[in-house]
Design brief:
Layout: H1 7-11, H2 18-32, E1 39-42, H3 53-64, E2 70-73, H4 80-84, E3 89-91, H5 96-102, E4 107-109, H6 126-132, H7 138-151, H8 161-177
Parallel strand pairs: 1-2, 3-4
Helix pairs in contact: 2-3, 2-6
């Protein structure tokens, strides 16, 4: 899940909140996912817990008839083990999608995401995703990750100290060199 105040959720998706997206995903999962499938919903690491996602998700899953197959994952837990154990990742347009692509898992972006590209993410319907989604193309994945690393993203993580130190150093270097969003592009004063 993404933070509900995330600009990318408001500007680059048709969802007004996470409840709407959760209902869509859980309903589709209930109807089209394999009977043995489980749905893990990961809370954003910075979510303040004001909406009580555990109870909300339990109610949505019960209404869809899959209460025993839908589980909430604490946002503080690292995502990589859950992604690696999964058949795929559904997100609105979170950077978790980039993480899943890097780990070779199929990704369904419900919003407008930078990685919503044939060969990187699933281009079919959500209903078909559960059974037929393919993993990202490895060579396209490598090129995509190199491209965003050089042009857009700064390495690091904002939720833990070592990652924060790397992010701050990388951002400061780009600002100092006048490189914003693209390599070798100078910031005009």
């Amino acid at each position: 899940m993404q933070m509900e105040n995330d600009y990318s959720l408001r500007a680059y998706s048709d969802f007004r909140d996470n409840d709407q997206a959760l209902r869509l995903v859980v309903d589709s999962f209930a109807r089209y996912a394999p009977a043995e499938g489980r749905l893990l919903v990961k809370v954003h690491p910075l979510d303040p817990g004001l909406k009580g996602w555990g109870a909300r998700l339990a109610r949505i899953a019960a209404e869809a008839g899959v209460a025993d197959r839908v589980h909430l994952l604490d946002g503080a837990l690292p995502a990589d083990p859950a992604i690696l154990a999964s058949r795929g990742v559904v997100t609105i347009n979170s950077t978790l999608g980039v993480q899943a692509i890097a780990l070779g898992r199929p990704v369904m972006a419900l919003g407008r995401a930078i990685y919503q590209v044939p060969g990187l993410s699933w281009q079919g319907s959500l209903d078909a995703f559960w059974e037929t989604a393919l993993p990202p193309d490895p060579s396209l994945t490598e090129a995509f990750l190199r491209g965003i690393a050089a042009c857009l993203h700064v390495r690091g993580r904002f939720y833990a100290r070592p990652g924060l130190d790397v992010a701050v150093a990388g951002a400061a270097k780009r600002l100092h060199l006048g490189m914003v969003n693209q390599p070798m592009v100078e910031v005009m004063a």
